[in-house]
Amino acid sequence: MEEKLYLLYFAGILALGISAQWLAWRLRLPSILLLLGFGFLASFLPAGPDEIIGREVLFPIVSLSVAVILFEGGMSLRFAELREVGPALGGLVTIGALVVWGLASVAAYFLIGFSPAISAVVGAIVVVTGPTVVGPLLSHIRPSRKIGSLAKWEGIVIDPIGAVLAVLVFEFIMQTGEGATWATPMWSIAKTIGVGVVLGVLTAYMMIFALKSYWIPDFLHNAFILAVLLSVFAISNYIQSESGLLTVTVLGLLMANQKHIPVRHIFEFKENLRVLLISCLFIVLAARISLGTLLQVGWMGLLFVAVLIVIVRPASVFLSTIRSGLNWREKVFLCFMAPRGIVAAAVGSIFSFELAHHAENLDLGEVGGVAEGTLVVPVVFMVIVGTVMFYGLTAAPVARWLGLASPAPQGVLIAGADRWIRELAVVIKSAGFQVMLVDTNFRNITAARMQNLPAQCASILSDFVSEELNLGGIGRLLAATPNDEVNSLACMEFTHLFGRKEVYQLSPWDSGSGKRQSVSDHLRGRVTFGHGLDFYAIARRVTAGAQFKKTTITEEFTYHDFQQTHGESATLLFVIPETNRLRIVTADDSFVPKAGQTIIALIDARPEPIKPPAKSEDSKSGEPEESPAKSVASE
């Protein structure tokens, strides 16, 4: 019977984790909030993770999972971003980390009542932020490229720094009675950096060489890299405690920035694995904390969190970014981007176990009748919950208030800049939405810029567009080049950025050809406007005099009236609801615009009836003159 209960427990943890992720997506909330909430609910079960899994097994699993998460975070970093954020990043992860450590240690000593030794350990643990919470927040906020890159780099690089700092502080405390000096932590720092960097570089070179030489078959790529990643993490930690975090971060960074082998499929696999690991880890770690233990921390713990948010983070940002080139808006935004995540939870849990194990040697005291070492985990989890709630709910409004992000990116990245695309982009822009045109034809780009349209001369499939172009305010892709294969590839390229729901392409020229069509359905984005309305079909209509018109539907002028006025050939392209969001009409849409909504449609020109000229007495010919067709004006 016990085996069945254990089976239900593990399956239930996975189900709760994925349910929390889905609910967070639906409610537009940081997923970590719901994960922690579900975890606290799981703490009321008769048996907890320590009893079912066991501490000896749980903590190695947590450490290996954190290694995968940091490797995936390292793979999201690009050296090209350092040109803009390098000076500020250096200050944040050095001076800023020291400021957080010092001030947080002082706050833990005076507010919670920890001893100086435990205060220093707690201060080091809360230095970390983490890609598990910073990344999803940035994806939700979509800030400008510069500040977004800086926040991403800080969140990933600071994790191994904070973890190593906590280890060094703990080792120094353990050796205090044995005549330890400052030479001890200095040697540990040098050894940690050396082991982490050397092992990370050597492993990256070995993996790149093996994959480039085709020694590893395609179906083993992800499994091979995962096995190597976990092995080198364990070896690095065996040589020097906690150096594995630096090793896997360096490994991910080098794999992402090399140009010898494609790594997109590796990144996607690790990204999916990260979601799975985070979903389970947060619930399991939170389930170890009972409500009674949190209550033991009391109001002093909440005040400690408030000090971290109101005093410690702003002080670290403003002191570390002096002469960094950041303006005051960017500095204020960084003050609202310091949520703690899985690394803080994992490191706090591990050190709590170590502190309890060495309690007699350290001569630890009590806080409110509870052993100091026992309170480290609830304090860390209170910091995680408090910072995630505060930053998760305030970062997006603050970014919009500072003008560093749009509330919900509604702009359109358009692949192509031919004449009819430029005319369409002008109408979209006049409706209040951002557009960005990308084309390899410089004449098209020049013409677009003359029409005050943002445009870049580049291939939509190039790294420049996905990595260098500022896509702040852009929330979807419309692939509208004459080449259906390029359109499909563009949709595949930008799915990871916008999601499958927001990548669109024009109808292929051979749509409806079944298995013989040039591009399979599963390789395409969402087909826009209508089947058969491909690039050349639209171009021919525009050349013949068709125009893109913006019209507001009212109670007096319904969509039926619009169709009656402009005929069946009028093609609905975009709908703007009252919420001022841009909806692209797809080929399978049966949507009927309602009163209060604005539409953008392609309307064919209607020539005026030809009137015969007045005949004079001297006129010998009765043939009427042909008058040119009158173009349709924009409403």
How would you describe this protein?
There is one protein chain. With 635 residues, the protein is of the alpha/beta class. The protein folds into 2 domains: 1-402, Na+/H+ antiporter like fold (Up-down Bundle); 411-603, NAD(P)-binding Rossmann-like Domain (Rossmann fold, 3-Layer(aba) Sandwich). The chain contains 24 helices and 12 strands. The strands form 3 sheets. Strands 5-4-3-6-7-8 form a 6-stranded parallel beta sheet, with helices on both faces. Helix 2 runs parallel beside helix 13 and helix 4 (55-74) runs antiparallel to helix 13. The longest helix has 30 residues, at 145-174. It starts with a helix and ends in a 32-residue tail after the last strand. The model is unreliable at 616-635 (pLDDT under 50).
